[in-house]
Amino acid sequence: MSKFDVILIIIGLFILAACGADFWLIINDYPEFGGGFWSVILGIATGEVVSFSIYRMVKRVQETKLPRALTGKHALIQEMEDTEEIEGVNTDGA
Predict the structure, then answer these.
(1) C-alpha dist (Å) from residue 8 to 1, 5, 11, 89
(2) Are the C-beta atoms of 10 and 4 separated by less than 8 Å?
(3) Average pLDDT per run of 10 along the chain, which is 94 residues long?
(4) d(CA 13, CA 17)
(5) Cα(94)–Cα(31) distance, rounded to whole angstroms?
(6) Is residue 18 within 8 Å of 41, Cβ to Cβ?
(7) pTM of the model
(8) Could you say which of 32, 50, 59, 64 has the lowest number of CB atoms within 10 Å?
């Protein structure tokens, strides 16, 4: 069972508990939850699914390795910037 399955189970239980509480209110002649309550509950559930999906996508991208050409260029640019900062070279042309 993956982490995503666990999150979906917890969200399902969260929504089931909210529905059970609403059902209890209806049976005991109390006013039921309004639209704002359900918007918050479904917003929380949707936010968790979306944020974990984005986390999985970012993690998958980070696991893939960059080509050596890009890594080498990045290292060269970073080294040049570090050298300019240390030596105080003015790159503005002034």
Answers:
(1) 11, 5, 5, 55
(2) no
(3) 84 92 94 91 89 82 62 65 64 53
(4) 6
(5) 73
(6) yes
(7) 0.56
(8) 64
* Nearest partner of 22 among 5, 12, 11, 34, judged by Cα: 34
What are 85's two structure tokens? 């900062």
For 2-50, give the secondary structure using H, E and C: CHHHHHHHHHHHHHHHHHHHHHHHHHCCCCCCCHHHHHHHHHHHHHHHH
Query: Cα 41 vs. chain centroid, distance in angstroms?
Result: 18
Q: How far apart are CA 49 and CA 11, in angstroms?
A: 9
Buried b (16+ CB within 10 A) or exposed e, 79-91: eeeeeeeeeeeee
Distance between CA atoms of residues 45 and 11, nearest Å: 6
Hey, how many other C-beta atoms are within 10 angstroms of the C-beta on 38? Answer: 15
User: What pLDDT is attached to residue 74?
Assistant: 61
